Amino acid sequence: MDPNEASPTESPAPAAGVAALPEPLVTPDMIASARARVSPFVRRTPIISTRPGELGLSHGVALKLELLQYTGSFKVRGAFHKILTAAQRGIPEAGLVAASGGNHGAAVAFAARRLGHRAEIFVPSTSPLMKRDRIASFGAIVHVVDGLYDDAQAAANAHQFETGALLVHPYEDVDVVAGQGTMAAELGDQLDSYDTLLVATGGGGFTAGQAAWVRDTRKVVSVEPVTSQCLRAAVTAGELVDVTVSGVASDSLGARRLGAVAWSVVRHFVDQAVVVTDDDIRAAQRALWDELRLVAEPGGATALAALRCGAYVPERGERVVVVVCGSNCDPSTVTA
Prior knowledge:
Blueprint: H1 28-38, E1 47-49, E2 62-65, H2 75-87, E3 96-99, H3 103-115, E4 119-124, H4 129-137, E5 141-145, H5 149-163, E6 166-167, H6 174-180, H7 182-190, E7 196-200, H8 205-214, E8 219-225, H9 230-237, H10 250-253, H11 260-269, E9 272-276, H12 278-292, H13 298-309, E10 320-324, H14 332-335
Parallel strand pairs: 2-10, 3-4, 3-6, 4-5, 7-8, 7-10, 8-9
Antiparallel strand pairs: 1-2
Helix pairs in contact: 1-2, 1-6, 2-3, 2-6, 3-4, 6-8, 7-8, 8-11, 12-13
GO molecular function: L-serine ammonia-lyase activity; threonine deaminase activity
InterPro entries: Ser/Thr_Dehydratase, TrpB-like_PALP, TrpB-like_PALP_sf
Keywords: Lyase, Pyridoxal phosphate
């Protein structure tokens, strides 16, 4: 069902003395507009269906292969939408700036080259060398910052303040999140019906984009590494909180705090938040390679890991879609 054709979702009236939740900052209308804007610049990624017994699962699932998107991840959807939207007002002479563990930076660099803009990307020292090289291959200037993603974001923020460059934040931006939501809109055209969407969560922009599109028409399950779980921590606490970050997927799923834009959507439309171990993630990577010959980075295999390890158990007959969202890793870490 297209959420734009469904009846508006009505939240139950709050109990006396309880404030209603603020409305989501990203809506289906915004995502539909984003889709029209970015369609000429992104790939329509394929879906493959597995049979019971494949990938270590007793049931079949549909895999949405966002790892086949330009630059190897879904990130170009949000990057193109942010830049194209900003271009209507004019891109600063200083160009674009972003912080990234790798995938967002590659997406911004790719979009900047395609659209004719300068880009500078700040990456943490924990980002794999191959991801830094990937960003540079698209013509962006790469700055390596000691620390983790949030340290790189602080440096990018300082650069934006000093130069006036356009900051393209990976998840704390309504235009970026609306762009990421175009995947769910595309998925709705490709599958007649499904019940549940499993999505890996870092800072929350990708998960929120999908949830903002499907709203209450589908179940959305967030999957995070147990070592980096800002969404689950926020849901548990009922507010945004800082978490520690580590683990095999920290370069792509290693945000210390869920984004406020994402939180405005998550608390309305994300139904469940589960976590998986590094071993679960590595095993899911290996299964995708052994059975489908797909090289998925740790973050890209995290959603599948939840099904394989039992962190999420579908009901009988439940139709599940798993997003395989990234491929940017050294293949030898998966195939050897």
